[in-house]
């Protein structure tokens, strides 16, 4: 089974050691035996183990003492505690002390193997998370486009094209749905261009009154209008030598479209009320969520301006077309949100991630960030499905409500609710029954009984 199959079993009962050794060896584990906590510590000093089974009550050094010392020594392998004298207090103490799970004797061989398998899967997920974090760091360094996170083929190909475009001093039209990160891309293009040391300025063409837009873009001279007490440079002049990002370019009024076209053609601006033109050296990046070709056909956007802007078109793929990026994006955004709120970042449960992968994300990355921000505020140590926005729960919530509300029987409704909550708790903890019991606020034996009752 390779590295994931190196198993240490610690128990003072010879018959238990022999039984566990036979069962786990047949399952393919490479087994090392220890008869008390001291022998267990000596074993982990000699070699690495990927899984550890440890009895709770032992002479010389008991299971809880072994657990504490192992964690102090930096052992990160899942440690599963065993006891014939199980109490909920013991399970809680073991989990709080860093144990992965807690199982009670006598147990069946299948239960031990199932618990070990889930612990191995837990380790695999932890390693994947570490790999994702490293990938995020590598991607941010290698792409150099505003720290855009991507590993999907469609997005990596897009970023490769954008990187090439960044190095050529030409006008770019960035299109894409709202929330896809068009301004982030524009900043990345500027940072990778030969204008990177010069200003990057952004203006939202739909975010200010038409009467102010022209003076904002092109500036004005003293006396041009009431309140113009002195000459003022426009954004084009302020961005001299650098990059100007015109967001929501489709919102630009007709008069301003004419003047912008002249600026792109002549490379000079005429301030409002001015008699002379001023030369400018600015690279223009424009962005829109609209279909500008349709706007041209309808007569609301000038065709000649469209062609001037559309020298190099870059269409940012929506998130639903790059779902392979969602796990990486979640890791990146959760770290960002945790830093923003000054709190430790909760883990993302498998069940919550499954919902995020299933959603179509009409609001794209911005919607994903909002969903995770809500989850970080509501969650404690682990993000569960209920911490996500209701619209992400989808069919699962509908089915649950149908099961509960589709009957007048309180007993049937309660059973359906219990079944759904237990399944969600198991999904959220990766099948860890001890942690699921703590989430559900029921005892370990009660959880086992209900799982058997509901066929879980």
Folded structure, characterized:
Keywords: ATP-binding, DNA-binding, Nucleotide-binding, Phosphoprotein, Transcription, Transcription regulation. Pfam families: AAA_lid_14 (PF25601), HTH_8 (PF02954), Response_reg (PF00072), Sigma54_activat (PF00158). One of its GO terms (biological process) is phosphorelay signal transduction system. InterPro entries: AAA+_ATPase, AAA_lid_NorR, CheY-like_superfamily, Homeodomain-like_sf, HTH_Fis, P-loop_NTPase, Sig_transdc_resp-reg_receiver, Sigma_54_int. The protein folds into three domains: 2-131, 3-Layer(aba) Sandwich (Rossmann fold); 153-320, P-loop containing nucleotide triphosphate hydrolases (Rossmann fold), CATH 3.40.50.300; 323-453, Helicase, Ruva Protein, domain 3, CATH 1.10.8. 51% of the residues lie in helices and 12% in strands. The chain is built from 19 helices and 14 strands. It has helices at 14-26, 37-46, 63-72, 88-96, 109-143, 153-166, 182-191, 210-218, 235-238, 254-266, 292-298, 303-309, 326-341, 350-358, 364-378, 390-405, 410-428, 433-440, 444-453, and strands spanning 6-10, 30-34, 51-55, 79-83, 101-104, 172-175, 200-204, 243-247, 268-269, 278-279, 283-288, 312-315, 347-348, 382-383. The strands form four sheets. Strands 2-1-3-4-5 form a five-stranded parallel β-sheet, sandwiched between helices. A five-stranded parallel β-sheet has the order 7-8-11-6-12. Helix 2 packs parallel to helix 3 and helix 16 runs antiparallel to helix 17. The protein is elongated and about 100 Å long. The model has no long low-confidence stretch (mean pLDDT 84).
């Amino acid at each position: 089974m390779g590295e994931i199959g190196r198993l240490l079993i610690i128990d003072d009962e010879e018959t238990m050691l022999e039984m566990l050794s036979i069962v786990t060896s047949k399952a393919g584990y490479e087994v090392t035996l220890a008869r008390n906590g001291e022998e267990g510590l000596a074993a982990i000093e000699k070699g690495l183990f990927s899984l550890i089974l440890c009895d709770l009550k032992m002479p010389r050094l008991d299971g809880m003492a072994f657990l504490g010392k192992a964690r102090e020594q930096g052992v990160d392998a899942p440690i599963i505690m065993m006891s014939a004298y199980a109490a909920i207090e013991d399970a809680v103490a073991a989990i709080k002390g860093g144990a992965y799970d807690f199982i009670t004797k006598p147990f069946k061989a299948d239960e031990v193997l199932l618990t070990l398998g889930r612990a191995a899967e837990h380790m695999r997920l932890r390693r994947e998370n570490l790999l994702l974090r490293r990938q995020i760091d590598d991607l941010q360094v290698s792409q150099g486009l505003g720290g855009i996170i991507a590993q999907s083929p469609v997005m990596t190909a897009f970023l490769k094209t954008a990187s090439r475009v960044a190095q050529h001093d030409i006008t770019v039209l960035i299109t894409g749905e709202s929330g896809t990160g068009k301004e982030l891309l524009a900043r990345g293009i500027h940072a990778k261009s030969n204008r990177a040391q010069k200003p990057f300025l952004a203006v939202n063409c739909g975010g200010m009154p038409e009467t102010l837009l022209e003076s904002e873009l092109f500036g004005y001279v003293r006396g041009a209008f009431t309140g113009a007490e002195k000459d003022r440079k426009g954004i084009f002049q302020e961005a001299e030598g650098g990059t100007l990002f015109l967001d929501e370019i489709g919102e630009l009024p007709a008069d301003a479209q004419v003047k912008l076209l002249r600026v792109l053609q002549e490379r000079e601006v005429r301030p409002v009320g001015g008699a002379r033109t001023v030369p400018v050296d600015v690279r223009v990046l424009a962005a829109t969520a609209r279909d500008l070709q349709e706007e041209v056909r309808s007569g609301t956007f000038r065709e000649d301006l469209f062609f001037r802007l559309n020298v190099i078109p870059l269409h940012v793929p929506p998130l639903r077309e790059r779902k392979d990026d969602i796990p990486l994006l979640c890791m990146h955004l959760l770290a960002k949100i945790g830093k923003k709120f000054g709190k430790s970042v909760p883990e993302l449960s498998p069940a919550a991630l499954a919902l995020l992968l299933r959603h179509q994300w009409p609001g794209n990355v911005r919607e994903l960030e909002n969903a995770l921000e809500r989850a970080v505020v509501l969650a404690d140590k682990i993000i569960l499905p209920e911490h996500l926005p209701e619209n992400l729960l989808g069919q699962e919530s509908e089915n649950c409500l149908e099961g509960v509300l589709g009957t007048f029987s309180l007993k049937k409704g309660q059973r359906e609710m219990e079944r759904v909550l237990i399944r969600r708790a198991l999904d959220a903890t990766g099948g860890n029954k001890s942690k699921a019991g703590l989430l559900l606020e029921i005892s370990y034996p009660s959880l086992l009984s209900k799982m058997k009752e509901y066929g879980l």
